[in-house]
Amino acid sequence: MNKFFKNNDTKSALEAQYEAQKIAFAPIIFQVARSMRDLGVLEALYKNKTGLTLEELTSKIELSKYSIQVLLETSLSADIIKIEDEKYFITKTGQFLLKDEMTKVNMNYNHYVNYLGLYDLDEALKNNKAEGLKRIDENNETIYPALSTLPQKIKKSWFEFDHFYSDNGFPHAIKIVLQNSPKTILDIGGNTGKFSKAVIDNSTDTKVTIVDLPQQVALAKENTLAEKYQERISFIEQNILDHSKAIPSGFDIIWLSQFLDCFDEENIIKLLKRVKESMGEDSRLYIMEPLWDKQRFETSAYCIINTSPYFTAMANGYSKMFNYEDLQEYINKAGLQIEKEIHNIGICQSIIICK
Ligand SMILES: C[S@@+](CC[C@H](N)C(=O)[O-])C[C@H]1O[C@@H](n2cnc3c(N)ncnc32)[C@H](O)[C@@H]1O
């Protein structure tokens, strides 16, 4: 068993009631914290280490005294600011909201991608359909074909979220992947081509083939116009969920990064079986996923676990983030064998190497 969330149910009744109110008011706290950040109040407090009065803040921010007071009082209740001698100061939590990259990326993703659609979570859970997706895109059943055409701010925050968690692991992951000098890599779900480009940048002759949906392949092509990429990256448009189609074969390494978590158990196992069929004796499958029970810190486990409801309401209605045992079970059921596992790559990733 993992070590996280062992302090659950250790609070007094009074403390527990307070915790319950924090949950009941979470959407309000969230939006106020975001407005504090986006409307410049946190920045003003951050720059003025000796604190600011309400009047001083009102003269610096283009909001009414009323609006600033509403923001400040909720922020006070949420430990985002503190008050001493009628002056307001930013707290450590406030500083994380303003300056910490992970917090910024998570907050933007939750505001732009998830906030409206999570209203439809009940229906999504009942129907196993991304019922919230219609709030940001009316044309698709899952978020993936919609990614390239989502409104700019939504698209930007989705990609920043996705890239923050995987890019962070790429420098270490690249070393692991290139360790035995593979000649060919198949990057399934290659997205904007970030990993494939990094492979080219860090090797002399490894060739990469990106497989993704047509909309993503178009984006990846746009991102790989430089000659060195053109020579060594190729593309295949393929809906990987079409199980009647074989996975391209003959690759030394098949790379699945934050890809399997897009699918449900049945499709993951079918997909892994097809990957197995495409592999020779010497091919290896590298799966990179953030596994919540393999994290160093509970904060990471918290972020990963709470990405799952996005999959339910917004992405597809049926997938989630894995814990280690689940992923291990899918790999075994597909007839693959775990050869090696490396955890704590970047801020939250694990790589499971299978043969
Ligand atoms: C969460 S992103 C991961 C991207 C990248 N591998 C990374 O680590 O950042 C999942 C990728 O899988 C692709 N994808 C989702 N469903 C797919 C399908 N049915 N067939 C092919 N690609 C798919 C998406 O378009 C997206 O590029």
Kindly list the characteristics that best describe this protein.
SAM-dependent_MTases_sf, 355 residues, single chain, alpha/beta, WH-like_DNA-bd_sf, Arc Repressor Mutant, subunit A, Rossmann fold, COMT_C, binds S-adenosylmethionine, transferase, methyltransferase
Chain-averaged pLDDT:
96
Order of strands, widest sheet: 5-4-3-6-7-9-8
* Domain count: 2
Low-confidence residue ranges? none
**Tally of separate helices:** 17
Please identify the top-level CATH class of the largest domain.
Alpha Beta
Give, in order, the helices and strands.
HHHHHEEHHHHHEHEHHEEHEHHHEE
Beta strand count: 9
Strand fraction:
5-15%
Radius of gyration: 23 Å
Largest sheet composition: 7 strands, mixed
Shape: elongated
Bound small molecules, by name, code or SMILES, are: S-adenosylmethionine
SSE-based structural type: alpha/beta
The name of the CATH topology of the largest domain is Rossmann fold
| Shape-level CATH architecture of the largest domain | 3-Layer(aba) Sandwich
For the terminal residues, how far apart are their CA atoms?
Answer: 26 Å
